[in-house]
Amino acid sequence: MKVHYVAALSRPLVLALALAGATCAMAQTAAAPASTPMIPPTWAQGRTPDQEGLNLAPNPPGITALAAADIPTASLKVPKGFKVELWASGMPNARSMAQAPSGTLFVGTRFPGNVYAVVSKGGQREVKVIAKGLHRPNGVVFKDGSLYVAELSRIIRYDNIEANLDHPPEPVVVFDALPKDEPHGWKYMRLSPDGKYLYFQIGTPSNIVMPPLTHATINRLNLKTNIMETVAHGVRNSVGMDFDPVTHDLWFTNNGRDWVNDELPNDTLHHLAHNGMNFGFPFCHQGDLLDLEYGKGRSCAEFDKPSLNLGPHVAALGMRFYTGKQFPAEYKHNIFIAEHGSWNRTKKVGYRVMRVVMDAKGKPVKQEPFITGWLDGESYWGRPADVHIMPDGSMLVSDDEAGAIFRISYQK
User: How far apart are CA 105 and CA 98, in angstroms?
Assistant: First the structure.
């Protein structure tokens, strides 16, 4: 109504109203205090006054791709017998991966709004941009010929996608009732082993706050009934998950809060043994560290413990159980985790792929570096974001800084 009313006014009256509004605004500005408190960005929330002088801020996002000739693949180091090669490139901000049975690999992004498809032709890989202009299309899942994409606040589906890679159809909206918070709002998504559910996280809307009940959770969407349910609480932000191939239980990584100190808290690996578990955020971190503010009057004994502490600020993202047969037998049922790398630490850490060794009972007993070389001192050229096990038993690692995917293989 207001738009039609103003449009119908005469030009002199409109000008008079505009001048009056400007005069009022100037008067309010003049009357305002000389210094208005600045609202800190969400990543700086929880920072103490003595930390404000530290030169620490989130790393700039990787929104371009290095040319294949400029990617220093040879600097990546793996255990003896393994080989690293550049598998595909030219994908700005390449992150989460999902593969169709035919071999087509789908890759989501966080910042450019693209979704890629990588197809093999004559032993070479061709990258196709199959979606543009989406909002944080980080999560990808392939099921029954359709590609599911998790955006910030909705899940969409591209049907019969492999037959239409050059001319993708308009997506079908599957679910559009997710929160719209940008901080920790991008989704990582996995399909349950029975094919009935899409699992994904809803991260906390700031660094360290008392989140709404809808946030700091792991959730699943029933693809038949379209009903969403929460399966875990107290999870600050998980950007990687996978199902144990033996028990079918969900495991996931979790990013710890910032602005405690260089060594605390740890990022963590969790096992969802049953629905309804609570892993402590924002009251308790890493299973044994009460929060200075929200932990008052609480005990870490109230909450479920992580299965493994992964290290402080390493930014543990995508993870997979090794289900292939190409790697040596001792790698069977191990977990591989892509560590995106720290920003809230005076000395950088992470920027690697870690191997978590599991015992005969399916419990983690230790972790060790599997791929290193993205970080050189305090400089990095790439940042691993996700891992994927190929049908031949080799492993792919996406790098959203280089805009590339690497293949790790093993020969006896």
Answer: 6
- What per-residue confidence (pLDDT) applies to 39? 78
- How high is the mean pLDDT of the chain? 92
Structural contact between residues 213 and 205, judged by C-beta atoms closer than 8 angstroms: no
- Adjacency order of strands within the sheet including 146-150: 139-143, 146-150, 155-158, 172-175
C-alpha 354/C-alpha 310 separation (Å) is 9
- Note the CATH number of domain 82-410: 2.120.10.30
Per-residue confidence (pLDDT) for residue 37, from 0 to 100: 64
Cα dihedral 151/56/351/93 (nearest 10) = 30
Instruction: Give the strands of the sheet with 352-358, arranged side by side.
Output: 316-321, 335-339, 352-358, 364-371
Angle at 222 between CA 221 and CA 226, to 5 degrees: 85
C-alpha of 120 from chain center: 26
Sheet holding 189-191, edge to edge: 189-191, 197-202, 217-222, 228-233, 277-278
C-beta of residue 356 within 8 angstroms of C-beta of residue 335: yes
- Alpha-carbon span 113 to 183, nearest angstrom: 16
Nearest to 313 by CA among 207, 389, 156, 410: 207
**Cα dihedral value 55, 61, 64, 68, nearest 10:** 80
Neighbours of 133 (CB within 10 A): 8
- Say whether 129 sits in a helix, a strand or coil: strand
Average pLDDT over residues 247-271: 98
What number of residues does the chain have?
A: 412
- Give the integer Cα–Cα distance in Å for 266 and 310: 6
Domain ranges of the chain: 82-410
How far apart are alpha carbons 305 and 273 in whole angstroms? 11
C-alpha span between 22 and 13 (Å, rounded): 14
Residue 105 has pLDDT above 80, yes or no: yes
pTM of the model: 0.90
